[in-house]
Amino acid sequence: MKPIVYFLLLSTMIMGCKEALFEDETRNPEYVFDTYWKEIDRNYSFFSPSRLDWDSLYQAMRPMISSTVSEDSLFNILTKATDVLHDAHTNIYSPHGIGGSIDYFNKYPINEITLDVDVYFESYTTGSIFDYGKLKNSNIGYIKIKTFEGLAADFEKIDLLFEALAITDKIILDVRSNFGGKISNSQVIANRMADSKRYVGEYRIRNGPDHDDFSEWISLFVSPPEGITLLTKPVHILTNRRSFSATEWFILFADALPNVMVVGDTTGGGSAIPVFRELPNGWMLRISNTQIRTPAGKDFQNTGLFPDVPVWITTADEENGRDTILEKAME
Question: Selecting from 3.40.50.1100, 3.40.50.720, 3.90.226.10, 3.40.50.2300, what CATH number does the domain 117-330 have?
Answer without folding.
Answer: 3.90.226.10
